[in-house]
Each structure stands twice: as structure tokens, then as C-alpha cells.
Task: inverse folding
């Protein structure tokens, strides 16, 4: 069976209670002995092979009990497991990993390699004057199969990929277009054919030049968490806020961070000294080199407010250069509600127009809103995960060119292949949740802009596939953003001027009257759907007796339009 999606699929071949050769009913020498169960797993992209042995016993009545475990290419070449090469052995709940060594078999596939650089002397060659562009994705599209694979430029800007035969179009994903200009190749792409195996094409340069000097210091606030329960704040709680400043440009810059806290938040300690005036903390961080970042960890105490109270924080950066790079997010806000836990394997949406709404799985907002998404993941397995891989198909109502990473729990790489967003955490070594409940959780957040053709009433849906090492993916919830009018009480459409909701506030019963039969949606303060009726009468009585006191959003829809009311239940 094949699991996963291209290019990270795996083929799993399972054996369940397979008998020995001489396991003949009653008379066989191996009859009645425990049968063999196990799996062979082949991994795409990495070319690794795993052999899992759930149960393997011994039958000396056939071939003297001798058995072999390993890989066999042909009569001349094989790779056995030491101690299991034509010997007598047993196994139970045991696994073996055979890793692909490109240095020994690289003569089979074709190698394409090169470097990504900021070409300071404009000669389209890699030399000592250049600045390496680290983590830039390089995409290889096979024009024969129309499928793409990818690689990343390393810390020194170098990349390489082993490819099958075929005609390829190769390009480096342009991630810094506001202050870098593509120089070489001038048409942005490299076309190369590999008609045979055992070929190579090296020194393929993707070179950019600096088009303008601008401040590229990006600010981000890590998700807020309690010491032992991620993304859950309780009244009178203690926790951590992580602030991150990243120099995404290619010039060194002097950095100052300004953090504004909630009135009820007390700073217990900080990893970086600061000056405080009212609720504003100022950190002087000095010079930050290009492509580097720095983190400030604040240990805080939360006030004793009521459940669902909002705690909002903001962070902004100041630097030497007054000119800001266009794509840089140099200020950001983060809000968390008291007493509202979050699913650690999920995707959440946050409105930049309404940051006080916090992170939600279901968000009501305006079609002009810019949306921040946060993907949470937790290793709930029994061992640490070396790598974590995320895949997300971007909605056709989002402009894919506006995808902009905000922050993450660890070093990551990301790439867009058509509408597929891929995020790789290599060597994250994420511990399991039993060993380290806090350390087992990670996150990745990004910002996205809607297409200007979006219409009210449309939905923007996203779901993430989370891969821990080479296990089957965990599918998150579907984060839904519903586009409604953004007004103090929602929509105030003239066509629905005769639609009335009363009393407001209410003790429980809400009466809704309208000129037309309507569809009614009701959501709580966290935008969770609590009621839906597709064809009520022109006068309808909504019963909120069983619901908690608070604010509720009532959406009325009919052929005349849509109107939204905010109702308070006392």
C-alpha cells in the first residue's frame, strides 16, 4: 500500500502470520510454531528501506533453522545484517533501517548541483566576494512527467540533487524580491536534459544582486504557552513569551525591539536586559548580521482575570535603515484567551484586522483581511522524531505569491511548488510527549493575503498533513475562514433593514423577524458554530437558555442578502 503524497510517499509491504515452508497441517515439521509477521517499507525521495520484524521464530525442521535478513541486489551483491546472515536467530518487535548512500550509488542517477549567491561583483560566478543565500529552495520540474522535486541551498549556498533521466526545468524560488534582483540566469530558469544515466551538471549558479538597501528586520511572537500545557492559559498562571527578531536581508543592521504587554501581565524575568516605561519594554540588541536571528525569552505571570479574557501583546522592530523592505513584517500582535486550550496537531487562523479574536479554527472576517495561520504539531509517538515535514495545499482564494513565514519553533526550510506549501524541519529531534511534554510540541506560522476577486459568503479552507519522520501523515482539522462584512455589528445590508433581532441583551430567548424566510447561523465568542437552521419561519425564536453568558454572533441570510448581529446573553 502507498501512503503519503508526492514526493514523500512510502510503499508498505506487509506480512501477517506467514507460515514456515514446512508448516503442513499436523505432519509438517514447522506446524504449530509461531508464524512470521512484519513489514518492508520503501521511502521515496530518501531511497531508504526499513524492515520491521513483529515476530520471527525458528523452525529447525527445515533448512536447520537458518535464516537471512538483509538486502540482495543480485547473486554478486547483498547487504546482510550482522548476526542474521544464514544463521539461526529470532526477533520480536525489531526494526532495521537501510540508508541510501549517494556517494556509493551516485553513478546510477544524474547529479545537478550549483550555488545560490548574492553576486556582489556581478560576474555570474561563485567567488569569495559573494554572499551565500542559505535555505533558498531549488525546484526541479521533469517536463516529461510534469512532476517536481526540490532541494535547499545549504548554509554556504550550495545545493545538489540526483535526478532520473528526462528533460528538466530548474529554478530557484525567488524569496527576496523586494531587495534582491535576479541576475543570472537572466531568464530565471535553467533547462537541462539528462538522456542517459551516470551524468552530471555542476556549477549551476542562481545569482542575485542587491537592488536596494532597506531594513529587513522581521518581528515575530511565538505562541504563548503554560509550562505544562501548550497554548492554555489559566487565570493567575505563569508562562513564557518568546520574541524573535530576524534579519532576512543581506546587510548587517542595528536592532531595537519594542514589546508592549497586557496590563495584567507581570514580567518575572528576561533573557535580555530591557528598559520599561508603562507597558512598553525596549530591548537594545546591537548589530544583527544578515540571515541571522535572535530570540528573547520572557517569563511572565498572568493576571487573575475571568475565563475567555483576552491577553494581547505586540512586538515591533527598529533599525538603522529608515527604509523598510516591502515584504518585511516589522510589527505583529498576538492574542490569547484565558482558559481556552488548543489542539497540538491543528491549524488555526488569526485575523490581522481583529487580532483580539486570537487563534481560531473557524474565523469570521472581511474579504480584505490579511490572515495569519499557525500550524501546531506534537510528537505523540514513543521516540523522538528526527525530522518533521508539513504539507498544505493553499486555497485558490489565497494569492500564493503573498505567502510569508512569520516564525517557527525551530530552524526550518520552506518551498512553494505550484499551490503546495512544504515546510521541512530537518534534524529537529523533537522529543516524544511522554518524555518531554513541552519540548514535544512545535509550530510554524505564516501570513497570507486573499485574492482581490474574493466575494462575501465564500470560505477559505486549509488542512495540513503532518509527517513525523517517515510515518503516515497526521491530518489536522480544516481551518475555515468565512468572509462576511466587517462592521461593528457585522453586516448592515440595506436590503435587510427590516430584519430585527430582540431583545438585546437577552436572558435566553431571542426573537428574529424578517421579511423573507432565512438561514440562521449562530456562533459563540470563539467563532464556534452552536446553531444552524436552513429554513425557519419569518419569525423565529432562538433559545439560548442552555448556553453560557457572553457574546453571540447571529448571521441572517436570505435572497436579499446577509446581516450579522452581536447579541449579549446575560
Result:
Amino acid at each position: 500500500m502507498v501512503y503519503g503524497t508526492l514526493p514523500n510517499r512510502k510503499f508498505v509491504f506487509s506480512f501477517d502470520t506467514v507460515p514456515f515452508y514446512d508448516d503442513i497441517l499436523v505432519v509438517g515439521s514447522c506446524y504449530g510454531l509461531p508464524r512470521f509477521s512484519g513489514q518492508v517499507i520503501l521511502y521515496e525521495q530518501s531511497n531508504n528501506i526499513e524492515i520491521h520484524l513483529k515476530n520471527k521464530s525458528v523452525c529447525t525442521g527445515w533448512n536447520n533453522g537458518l535464516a537471512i535478513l538483509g538486502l540482495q541486489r543480485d547473486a554478486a551483491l547483498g547487504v546482510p545484517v550482522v548476526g542474521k546472515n544464514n544463521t539461526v536467530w529470532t526477533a520480536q518487535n525489531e526494526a532495521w533501517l537501510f540508508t541510501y548512500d549517494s556517494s556509493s550509488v551516485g553513478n546510477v542517477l544524474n547529479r545537478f548541483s550549483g550555488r545560490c549567491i548574492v553576486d556582489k561583483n556581478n560576474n555570474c560566478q561563485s567567488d569569495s566576494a559573494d554572499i551565500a543565500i542559505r535555505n533558498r529552495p531549488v525546484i526541479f520540474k521533469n517536463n516529461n512527467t510534469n512532476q517536481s522535486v526540490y532541494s535547499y541551498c545549504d548554509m554556504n549556498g550550495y545545493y545538489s540533487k540526483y535526478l532520473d533521466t528526462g528533460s528538466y526545468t530548474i529554478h530557484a524560488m525567488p524569496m527576496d524580491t523586494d531587495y534582491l534582483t535576479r541576475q543570472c540566469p537572466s531568464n530565471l530558469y535553467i533547462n537541462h536534459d539528462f538522456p542517459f544515466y551516470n551524468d552530471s551538471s555542476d556549477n549551476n549558479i542562481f545569482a542575485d544582486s542587491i537592488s536596494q538597501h532597506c531594513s529587513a528586520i522581521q518581528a515575530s511572537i511565538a505562541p504563548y504557552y503554560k509550562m505544562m500545557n501548550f497554548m492554555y492559559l489559566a487565570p493567575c498562571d505563569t508562562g513564557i513569551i518568546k520574541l524573535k527578531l530576524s534579519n532576512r536581508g543581506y546587510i548587517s543592521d542595528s536592532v531595537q525591539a519594542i514589546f508592549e504587554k497586557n496590563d495584567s501581565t507581570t514580567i518575572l524575568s528576561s533573557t535580555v536586559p530591557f528598559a520599561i516605561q508603562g507597558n512598553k519594554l525596549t530591548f537594545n540588541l546591537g548589530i544583527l548580521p544578515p540571515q541571522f536571528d535572535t530570540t528573547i525569552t520572557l517569563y511572565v505571570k498572568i493576571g487573575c482575570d475571568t475565563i475567555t479574557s483576552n491577553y494581547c501583546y505586540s512586538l515591533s522592530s527598529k533599525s538603522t535603515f529608515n527604509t523598510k523592505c516591502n515584504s518585511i513584517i516589522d510589527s505583529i500582535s498576538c492574542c490569547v484567551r484565558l482558559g481556552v486550550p488548543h489542539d497540538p496537531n491543528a491549524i488555526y487562523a488569526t485575523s490581522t484586522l481583529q487580532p483580539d479574536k486570537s487563534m481560531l479554527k473557524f474565523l469570521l472576517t472581511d474579504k480584505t483581511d490579511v490572515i495569519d495561520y499557525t500550524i501546531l504539531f506534537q510528537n505523540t509517538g514513543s521516540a523522538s522524531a528526527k525530522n518533521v515535514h508539513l504539507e498544505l495545499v493553499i486555497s485558490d482564494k489565497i494569492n500564493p505569491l503573498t505567502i510569508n513565514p512569520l516564525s517557527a519553533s525551530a530552524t526550518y526550510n520552506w518551498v512553494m511548488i505550484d499551490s503546495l506549501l512544504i515546510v521541512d524541519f530537518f534534524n529537529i529531534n523533537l522529543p516524544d510527549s511522554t518524555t518531554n511534554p513541552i519540548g514535544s510540541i512545535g509550530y510554524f506560522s505564516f501570513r497570507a493575503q486573499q485574492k482581490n476577486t474574493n466575494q462575501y459568503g465564500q470560505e477559505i479552507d486549509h488542512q495540513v498533513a503532518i509527517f513525523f519522520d517517515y510515518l503516515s501523515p497526521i491530518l489536522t482539522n480544516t481551518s475555515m475562514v468565512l468572509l462576511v462584512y466587517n462592521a461593528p455589528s457585522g453586516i448592515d445590508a440595506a436590503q435587510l433593514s427590516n430584519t430585527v433581532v430582540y431583545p438585546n441583551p437577552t436572558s435566553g430567548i431571542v426573537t428574529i423577524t424578517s421579511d423573507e424566510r432565512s438561514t440562521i447561523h449562530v456562533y459563540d465568542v470563539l467563532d464556534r458554530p452552536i446553531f444552524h437552521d436552513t429554513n425557519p419561519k419569518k419569525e423565529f425564536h432562538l433559545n439560548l437558555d442552555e448556553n453560557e453568558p457572553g457574546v453571540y454572533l447571529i448571521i441572517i441570510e436570505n435572497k436579499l442578502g446577509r446581516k450579522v448581529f452581536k447579541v449579549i446573553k446575560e
In short: DSSP finds one helix and 45 strands in the chain. Residues 226-230, 486-494 have pLDDT under 50 and may be disordered. The CA atoms of residues 178 and 326 lie 6 Å apart.
